[in-house]
Amino acid sequence: MPGHHSRSIATVCLSGELTDKLEAAANIGFDGVEIFENDLLTFNGSPADVRRMAADLGLAITIFQPFRDFEAMPEPQRRRNLDRAERKFDVMQALGTDLVLVCSNVQEACIGDPARAAADLRDMAERAAQRGLRVGYEALAWGRHTRRWREAWDIVQRADHPALGLIVDSFHTLALKDDPSGLAELPGERIFFVQLADAPLYDMDVLQWSRHYRNFPGQGQLPVTGFLRAVLASGYSGPLSLEIFNDEFRAAPVRQTARDGLRSLILAEAGAAAPSAPGTVPATPLPPVPRLSGIEFLEFAVNEAAGRQLGDFLGGLGFQLAGRHRSKAVELYRQGQVNLVLNSEPDSAAASHFEMHGPSVCAMGLAVDDAAAAARRAEALLCASWNEKRGVSERLLPALRAPNGALVLLVENQPGRPTLWDDDFHLLPAAPPAGPPLLGIDHVTQALAPGQMDGFVLFYRGVFGLEPEPQLDLPDPQGLVHSRAMVNAGGTVRLPLNTSEARETATGRFISAAAGAGVHHIAFLVEDAAASAAALAGSGAPLLPIPGNYYDDLSARFALEDAELEALRRLNLLYDQDAEGGSFRHAYTTSFANRFFFEVVQRRGGYRQFGANNAAVRMAAQARFEAGRRG
Ligand SMILES: O=C(O)c1ccc(O)c(O)c1
Ligand SMILES: [Mg+2]
């Protein structure tokens, strides 16, 4: 017996033809699909063909939907609607599903009388029952008279027919800020079906919001877990089904969306099962979110020539060659607490990454408390794993693939035990540091192609417990860049994610130059940004020049001492403050091979952001610099 509810997805969530949708849903492991009427109408085959196809794939057809504008219409529509229902029943029987979703009537002509709605639904349910079918009634948040689940439930109770039940959809309830907790009191068998959807919090017309911006549970900001907990407390034992209307999903690769969907459903169930029932075994045995102590290293895919160039570039930033791998063409560069690895080993994950993307970050090493448990969690959440070849007595680093195919390596450090670097590298004697030491990797920013944000958010949130910060819109001279930082509870891992629809923004240029999503910039934490910038400038490091207007404006925005302002100006440092008086000083390098760049940052007084106020100036300076470099 499966320990979880059967898992279903509406065909409207997925791109492509009905065949593609069913295959993707089945291959990733869904148990069933909601057939959206439009996907059937546009399919060049009979409902019986769909039934066979689903059966061959091992998919149940959980529901046929939607049936619109049925209840509480005046004559002659009332009678016509009952005839319409009979035609839908014919299709359902050919499809081999017993449940139809009736969404609440949105017509002006709909009569505002729950008794009439109940009488009509009872008629429909009686006709359905004669064919062994069932009817579920769902409140649309923008229905003419029925908008809340309680109103729909009241009508279902009045109708009092065993073939009529309630359908609930987290979006409609949560979008209206309606309270789902009362669902726990319903008899579970009277809830015929449960749809789950999340959404970002937008202050907009609810119909437009629902039709274009829904996303999978965990990708948005609605309290879907609380909703699900209430539903499950009723004793509901039917399928949990994802129903997402989203413009980006309609355009996204179908297999990725299906994977994200199932990942989100596994997480939602685990989340709903977890805290309310201490001591009981959760429905999904999902290992806990790993504790992350930081980014242990970043690994660059290079070939020999690119490796030399990047090594030189890093040398200019004060990094030193600190070790060579015992068995592979892999070098360790170090400055202070920061480890950067350059991998030119043939026939490796790095080599294929280099073939596809050129010099770029191909792996991130995360320091975790329990690498094996973290790997099991990732596997349970459908992440592909990777086993790199290794020499005798070298460390086994559990590895999984991020949504762009880059690797995340899980590094477990135990006090008093040899480190990864001791185990796998011939370490060179450390020379005295050039410049003030780097304290660690402050953040790693990735550029994503349009449409990839939700998938990455779910990956980092679900697998590693990072939480998304609010989305920011940053003006690049060539278009807007949307940025959302994923940050863990301790602030030890910070991963801003940027997307842009515009091809010529810094983010857009990265995506075309690197052939896809990847690490666009790496920020190092320092104690004193002015001292670090001065040391970098002194050793001839390529710092990004910032225009003088920026500093004139700074003096108008913040009460800075003249000497400080002059130092910022001289060192091309940017400055920001938060509302609590925390401050941020940062400087950027120009890019390596027009691809990625580095930043040094200093945080004071609990500043937790990323200097978004300065992004426009930085991106304009980069655009100007790169245009100059191209000549
Ligand atoms: O947007 C709609 O019309 C619509 C249709 C069916 C649903 O189940 C739903 O939640 C919304
Ligand atoms: Mg719905």
Task: Give a written overview of the molecule.
By secondary structure, the protein is of the alpha/beta class. The chain folds into three domains: 267 residues, Divalent-metal-dependent TIM barrel enzymes (TIM Barrel), CATH 3.20.20; 136 residues, 2,3-Dihydroxybiphenyl 1,2-Dioxygenase, domain 1 (Roll); 191 residues, 2,3-Dihydroxybiphenyl 1,2-Dioxygenase, domain 1 (Roll). It has 21 helices and 26 strands. The strands form three sheets. The chain has a nine-stranded mixed β-sheet with strand order 14-15-16-13-9-12-11-10-17. Helix 1 links the parallel strand 1 and strand 2. The longest helix has 20 residues. The structure holds 3,4-dihydroxybenzoic acid (DHB) and magnesium ion. Magnesium ion binds next to loops.
Q: Keywords, please?
A:
elongated, EC 4.2.1.118, metal-binding, isomerase, 36% helix, 9-stranded mixed β-sheet, Glyas_Fos-R_dOase_dom, 21 helices, TIM Barrel, 2,3-Dihydroxybiphenyl 1,2-Dioxygenase, domain 1, alpha/beta, isomerase activity, 631 residues, binds magnesium ion
